[in-house]
Specification:
By secondary structure, the chain is of the alpha+beta class. The protein is 15% helix and 32% strand. The longest helix has 18 residues.
Length: 327
């Protein structure tokens, strides 16, 4: 896992930049855009401002008590895309591969305050600052080939999470050649499989469920709704990474029935493109954790007999602070 940033406060911002086109974070709906601007500190260090909503159609508060931890991962992903385009001159038409992504947080850092003095805005949204350090930068001609990132997310000077990731970039022409006929499937709906019960997956709505049942315990088929406004926020010729992270979270919920799962720590590796038109299988099992008060779940996705994605997620065990994660 490519962690961690050790700083606890950001460098003061100097002239935060104005609003930017949504395509810089690969989102089409403004409701799904979390960064609000950025400032360059050095050639490899940046400070990105973001806002987390109190209510979101998909990244919803957990039982009304915690921010959804996957907001951390999505903010990291959008921050990476924004800086790659805006600061490293990656053309908007180029493609990214997020090879690794991980974060570490805790329930108390994600707790929603009820008193007015705990609110950043009347609507309950949070102002977040993301300090970013880029390293292992490899160029492809004048463009960006790959880089690693370390990120620190904080609010009002208090750390919320640390995280890291590794990406590579592919030009539009090379990607077209690499994907070949797969590009013809962009935006084409795929058959919608039946879902597991939303409660089993830790969701409130069937539309947000990405697991389909199988006869075997601990094994599901990936369920794709290509019309989902957030998981498929724009046409794609393969399964988006955010959907695979959600599948890992849902599998972690489903593998321990009746016990809710708050993924305050996550490590993920994206090994291959996951194709839309072939079955993808999701397996999950509980593995030993570092402490007795933590439940750790390992998730593996396979397609055509090959691993395509792996993730390990940690949740605090059923304590007074972390009971009843989702309604």
């Amino acid at each position: 896992m490519v962690l961690l940033v050790s700083r606890t406060a950001s460098v003061p911002l100097k002239g935060r930049q104005a609003a930017f086109p949504r395509q810089l974070v690969h989102r089409s709906d403004p409701e799904d855009v979390f960064p609000t601007g950025w400032t360059r500190q050095t050639d490899t260090q940046f400070s990105v401002s973001a806002r987390w909503p109190r209510a979101h159609r998909f990244f919803a508060p957990v039982t009304g008590r915690y921010q959804d931890p996957l907001l951390i991962a999505e903010t990291m992903r959008q921050t990476t895309m924004l800086l790659a385009h805006a600061e490293f001159d990656v053309p908007v038409g180029d493609q990214f591969v997020m090879w690794e992504l991980g974060y570490l947080s805790s329930p108390e850092r994600l707790a929603l305050g009820a008193r007015p003095e705990h609110l950043d805005h009347p609507d309950g949204s949070w102002d977040i600052t993301v300090d970013v350090s880029c390293s292992r930068i490899k160029r492809r001609g004048r463009g960006l080939g790959s880089m690693s990132l370390e990120l620190l997310l904080h609010r009002s000077g208090s750390r919320i999470a640390t995280g890291g990731g590794r990406i590579s970039c592919t030009s539009a022409k090379v990607y077209e050649r690499l994907r070949g006929n797969r590009r013809a499937g962009t935006g084409v709906p795929v058959p919608l499989l039946p879902s597991v019960a939303p409660r089993e997956a830790g969701r409130a709505s069937e539309r947000d469920v990405v697991l389909a049942p199988t006869p075997r315990q601990g094994l599901w088929r990936l369920r794709l709704d290509t019309g989902h406004p957030t998981l498929f926020g724009r046409p794609n010729d393969h399964v988006p990474g955010v959907l695979l992270l959600e599948a890992a979270r849902q599998a972690a919920n489903a593998v321990r029935p009746g016990r809710d799962f708050l993924p305050v720590s996550l490590e993920a590796a994206f090994l291959r493109y996951v194709e839309l038109d072939r079955p993808c299988w999701i397996e999950a099992w509980i593995v030993p954790a570092d402490t007795r008060s933590t439940t750790r779940v390992h998730v593996r996705a396979t397609q055509d007999g090959e691993p395509v994605f792996t993730s390990t997620l940690d949740s605090p065990d059923r304590t007074e602070e972390a009971q009843g994660i989702r309604p």
